[in-house]
Each structure stands twice: as structure tokens, then as C-alpha cells.
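Running co-folding for flavin-adenine dinucleotide.
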Amino acid sequence: MAAILALVEADPRGLKRSSCEVLTAARTVAEQLRSSVAAVALTGAAELLEQAALYGVSEGIVLEHELLERYSMPGMAAALAQLIEHEQAHIVLMAATARGKELMPRLAAKLRAGYAPDCVELLVHDGQLLARRPIYAGKVIATVRLRTALHLYALRPNVFTARPVEKPVSMVLRRFRPHLSPGECSAVVREVLRSEGKLDVLEADIIVSGGRGMRGPEHFWMVEELAQLLGGAVGASRAAVDAGWRPHSEQIGQTGKTVSPTLYIACGISGAIQHLAGMSSSKVIVAINKDPEAPIFKVADYGVVGDLFDVLPRLAVKLAHFLGKPVPEGFRRVLERN
Ligand SMILES: Cc1cc2nc3c(=O)[nH]c(=O)nc-3n(C[C@H](O)[C@H](O)[C@H](O)COP(=O)(O)OP(=O)(O)OC[C@H]3O[C@@H](n4cnc5c(N)ncnc54)[C@H](O)[C@@H]3O)c2cc1C
């Protein structure tokens, strides 16, 4: 039996960074509440859970069912609901990734549990777990106490720190076989990996984003090259996505993804409230905009007032020299032409 369950996901490299953050948060809360904690893998299985031991979680639960061999959200929700009841868990944590945002409300509805989405802090006060989460598009941070017996929390990626323990513990694996019928699980007809090999904005430590100021999809190579130079991911405003310049998976904001990278570089983005809702908790924000009155400058730590078509090539050269890397191809050609 585990009182706290940490639901974890994998990407091709292993445990997702956001899942490592969840494991660290789960271990910390378990220590404070003197509770037991177990990791549950949504995809991948035993090998993935072995990695959870690096974050001090010593118990792993493998869901075993042939209908779960390919990820099915309704099937996974049904399986997890049974597991939570079986474990008599009272706290469930997961990262607020696309899957987390889909799965956790469904679980909450199934189990009549309280649910706090998009948490940026968990704290234990008088033996009770409280969550802090932004509301009103990030204008207010609310402290939430769930009053149900079972609590579900989705943690905003990149806000909690993933802290491996000094001495990894050994992992004890248990297996759980849920009762599932084919009717309960959606059938996966075809899987399309649209951003294969690309770093997702939710996992990235550095994001370079472009907006309408980029003037068209043909100029986004600048954002891509700068992101690649810095080892980061490409983001976009909704204006750039709605215009069909960038895929929706890159959209940052109220109707896109909420990110908190260490560094966010906004290029030609005005800083509408709906965009800020998705990125204003970034640790350092750099804005490049030709309009000195652009609202993005209100949240920026560093602002460059200027034409991004002048600023970005010069920034790329400086950064390349600073990092001891070659100037990216596209920027090099632009500079040779001028
Ligand atoms: C319900 C709802 C949900 C929404 N959700 C989202 C969301 O999730 N994400 C989101 O981003 N938006 C969202 N929006 C849209 C939002 O209100 C803005 O329209 C959008 O963010 C604007 O995108 P932008 O900053 O790229 O474009 P603009 O507002 O047009 O800004 C372009 C900026 O580029 C600058 N610029 C132009 N040329 C240059 C140049 N050469 N060099 C430097 N700077 C230049 C301009 O000065 C300007 O500030 C939502 C809106 C609604 C109503």
C-alpha cells in the first residue's frame, strides 16, 4: 500500500524531466507527512521505474494488461482508478503535461476527488498538504486546500526542482493487473509523431519564441537556429500558430502550453495577457521588440528595443563566440551578405 502515488511518463531518453520533478516533490511531501510513496509508470515499465530510485522513490508499480500495451487514455484512467482504490492512496501527483492535463481531471471525476491543476508549489502546513497555483491568467496565486479524502495535483513542469538523492535507493517493484474490457479502451489506429526528435517546450530549459513580428514562416529559421545554438526549444505566439507558420504544439499561452524555462527569449511578440499567462513564470525573460511600449517589456528582465532582423544575427554571433560554437549557417550567410 502506498499513500502517495507519483504518476510518471517517459520520452525516448527515459523518464521525462517533468516526471523527475514529480518524483522529487512526491518524496518531499511523503517525508513531511511521514507517508509511503510509490511511482507508477504510464508508459514503459520496469526499466523506467528503476530510474525513479535515483530520486529516492523505492517502490514502483507496474500496470500489467495487454489492453494497455499501446497508450489509451480511457483505459489508463480506468486502470489507475482501480489502482488508487486498491492502494487506498490519498494523494496522487503528476506533471501537468498534455497527458497529465487529460488524465487527472478524468481521474478526479471518476473517483470524486479534489483536483488542483497547474500547481507551482506544494507545502505541508499542520499536517495538511496545500497547493499554490496561478489563477486569472497568472495575476493571482491562490493557495488551495482540497477537502476530499483523495487529492489529485498536477504540477507545472519546470517549476519544481528534480533532485536526485545522493545514494540511490533500491527499487522494489510490484505488479497490478486491472480489470479492463476492450470497450473501455480506445483503439489506437495510427500514431503520428509530429515533433519527432525535437525538444518539447515543456521539457526545455531554454525557449526561443517567435511571434507575428517574424513576418512569416520563412523567417523562423532564425528562431530555430538560435534555439539550436542554445540547446533549447522553439516556441510561438498564437498569432504565429493561427497564421499556420508554426505547429500548435509550439504555442505558448492560455490556449497553448504553460512553460517556466530558465531562459525565455521572445522575438517579435507583443506580450498579450494570454501569451504572458503561459510564460511569465520563466526565470529570465528577454524580449526583442521594435515597439518600446510593447507590454512584453513589463515582464522582461532584459529588453532590446530594435528590429529583430538586425538584432538576432548580432545576438547569434555574440552567443556563438561566448559558447565557443560556430556561428549557425543561416546567420553566417546573412552577415556575409551585409
Ligand atoms: C481566448 C484567447 C486565448 C488566447 N490564447 C493565446 C495563447 O495561448 N498564446 C498567445 O500567444 N496568444 C493567445 N491569444 C492571442 C493574444 O491575445 C494575441 O493576439 C497574440 O498573443 C499576439 O501574438 P503576437 O504577439 O505574436 O502578435 P502581435 O500582438 O501582433 O505582436 C507582434 C509584435 O511584434 C513586434 N514587431 C513587429 N515587427 C518587428 C520587428 N521587425 N522587430 C521586432 N519586433 C517587431 C510588434 O511591435 C508587436 O509588438 C489568445 C486570445 C484569446 C482571445
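Result summary
Residues 18 and 157 are 5 Å apart (CA to CA).
Residues 4-184 form a domain with the Rossmann fold fold (CATH 3.40.50.620).
Job closed.
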